[in-house]
Amino acid sequence: MLVSILMTLIAASTPLLLASLGELVAEKAGVLNLGVEGMMLCGAVAGFAVAFSTGSTGFGLVAAAFAGVAAAMIFAVLALSLMANQVATGLALTIFGIGTSSLIGAGFVGRTVTRLQPVFPAALSEHPLLRVIFGHDILVYLSLALVAAVSFFLRRTRPGLILRAVGENDASAHAIGYPVIAIRYAAVAFGGALAGLGGAYFSLALTPMWADRLTAGRGWIALALVVFSAWKPGRLLLGAYLFGAVMTLELQAKAAGVSWLAPEVLAMAPYLATIAVLTMMSLGRRTGRLDAPACLGKPFSAT
């Protein structure tokens, strides 16, 4: 039972980790993109449509990443080049993603595809105990590797320090010759690619079939996780798995035969936890806002 719980927890946490890690990089560059839910849905429907049409989940993952980037570029053009309000543009992107995914996915409702398969051989991936480590698909291992890579990139590399400088003081970064807008475009594109892959994880791994609004608001949890982690990749990993555990409460309660608590209450648990965490951080002496990049959400013009 413990092995089963851990497998479910890891699977539930992976899309949150992917989407929130991409948003963390974008916010480190000073861009507040609230359209994570919309980008996830674009990735989910694109990944499913391509996987269903070609029979290849690999092609589906590539399509999901490109769809996430395409949606992110809509936001980038409006918010970075045209200097539209980032909060309003992000919300509009979410609405756009919901509508687009519903339109494209209308012909795929109820259809199924082959689930993403474990990376390692069956001797390891189906072992009663070792499958906790070796029984996962490529996106699980990719998400963990990306946490280490992003942490190293932001802390130990020159491009990472430049990206952080753009997020902390864009005017100074521009004054010494760094292309602020181009760097922010790249950060937003990276966030879109990971959000697209996070969305595709729902349609290609968790529930390999298409249903309208498949992500069920997980993009908003991903946004809260960035604040919860204080913009640190290591804490983000912990937070994603913590929220993943909360999200699996409903399934585990049903498996344990718990009937005295309404399933609707358990389904609300991750969203209630999100509100509780953000409330506690805002009431504390050191709020999440104080840890945020100084230029987060502020428009920048090179002229």
From TrEMBL:
Q: Does the keyword Nucleotidyltransferase apply?
A: no
Per the record, membrane topology reads: Multi-pass membrane protein
Q: Principal place where this protein is found?
A: membrane
Q: Which domain of life is it from?
A: Bacteria
Q: Which residue ranges traverse the bilayer? A: 6-25, 32-52, 58-80, 87-109, 129-154, 175-202, 265-283
Q: Which Pfam families match?
A: BPD_transp_2
Q: Which GO terms describe its molecular function?
A: transmembrane transporter activity
Give the record's keywords alphabetically: Cell membrane, Membrane, Transmembrane, Transmembrane helix
Q: What GO cellular component term, any one, is given?
A: plasma membrane
Where does it live in the cell? Cell membrane
From the Swiss-Prot or TrEMBL record, give the protein name.
ABC transporter permease
Q: What is the species listed in this Swiss-Prot or TrEMBL entry?
A: Bosea thiooxidans
